[in-house]
Amino acid sequence: MITNAPRGTKDILPEQITGWNYIEDEVRKICAAYGYEEIRTPIFEHTELFQRGIGETTDVVSKEMYTFTDRGNRSITLRPENTASAVRAYLQNKLYAAGNLVKLFYIGSMFRYDRPQAGRLREFHQFGVEALGEKNPAVDAEIILLAWNFLKNLGLDELELKINTVGCPACRPVYRQKLIHYFSEYHDELCGDCKSRLEKNPLRILDCKVDADKDFMDDAPKIETCLCDECREHFARVQELLTAAGVEFKIDSRLVRGLDYYTKTAFEIQYTPLGAQSALAGGGRYDGLVEEIGGAPTPGIGFAAGIERILIALEKQNLIPAAQKNLDAFIVTAGREAEVCGFKLLNNLRKKNIAATMDFASRSMKAQMKQAAKSGAKFALIIGEDEVNENAVTVKNLETSAQNKISIDEVAAMVMRNA
Predict the structure, then answer these.
(1) According to the model, what pLDDT value does residue 176 have?
(2) 10, 49, 137, 272: which has the fewest C-beta neighbours closer than 10 Å?
(3) What is the pTM of this model?
(4) Where are the domains of the chain?
C-alpha cells in the first residue's frame, strides 16, 4: 500500500513548477528594485517565539500551530508565519548594528493546522517582506506599493486594496473598552470563538467570518473615534502617499488582521474573483514586536503573500507562462560502441553548459528518434557504426528535418551557434 502525502500538503510536480519559478523570479526582481535582501530562517523555532510574538489569544497560536516536544524535551513549532522568525534573526544576528533601515524578504513554507481548502493548505508557501528600524509612514506606503506593484506586474486585474489603522498602545485600550461594551449587548448572538474573544481580544471579533454578516456588526464602534493624534496623523500620511503614487484604496474599518502584533497601519490586497479566500497579500505595522521578542523598542512593518492563492488567480486569467523546454540536443545511438561514444559526447556537451540527454534503455533507433522529437530538443545527434568509424555525428534539425554529417569535434560549436 502506498503511503500518501499528509492531508493538507501536496507535491509540486514538474509540469507545475513553471508557475512557481515565475512567481519567485518576479519576487526577486521587485525586491531588488526596492532594496530588499533575502533571508532564510529555520522551518521550526522555539514555541515561545510565536507565543510571545503572535499572541497566545490568536487562532494561530491557540488552535493552528504544529507543536511537538523534541528529544531534548524542548517545545518546538513549525513556523506558522515568518515575521516573528525574521525579527528573531534580526536580533540574534545584530542586523540593527549599522543603524540603518533593515529591509528583508523571504520565500518559504509555513504550517498551520486548519481545514484544507483551495488556496489554504496545512503546508502553504508565502513570499513576504519586513522593514525594521523606521517609523516614518513613508515606509508603510512603500511596503504597500511593493505588494501592490508585485501583483500588478504579474498582470492581475480586479485587485482591491483595503487599508485601516488599528491604533497603538496609547489609544487602542479606549477602543477595546468600547468594543467590549458594545458586543456585550450581543453576547448571546456571538459565535463561540467571539464569546471567548470578547474579554481577551475584542478587535478580533471584527475579523470574524462567522459573525461577519450579522446586523449588529455594521454598527460596531469605529476606531477613528478613538485614535490618538499620532495614529491619526500617521494614517492620514499613509493615505496621502498612496494617493500621490496613484493607487486607489478603500478604508475598511473592520480590517484588523489576525495577529496581535499589529499597530497602526493594516492592509490587505484582495482578488475579488476568489470569493471567500480573496486575500492575496496582507500585513501591517508592528512597532512593539521587536521589544516583545526581547529587543529594544524598534518600529517595523511587513506583509506576506500566499503563493498558492496567487497561482490560482494567475490560472483564472491564463497568466502562467507556458513551460519552456530547454533541451538543446538529444543523442541517439545504435550499438555498444556508439553508446560509449554518445555518452562521451554527452559529457562534453554538458561541460560547455549545453542542455543534452540521451536514451539509457538501449531502445531501437526508431524509438529513440520518437523520444528525441517529444523531448523538445532542437537537434538529434545520431551515432551509429558509420559515425563511430568516421569520428562523426549525423545532426538532424528536429524543427526542419534537415540533416548533415559533421565531425564529432565540431558538434558543440554547431549547437551553441544554432541553439
Answers:
(1) 85
(2) 272
(3) 0.89
(4) 14-171+227-316, 329-418
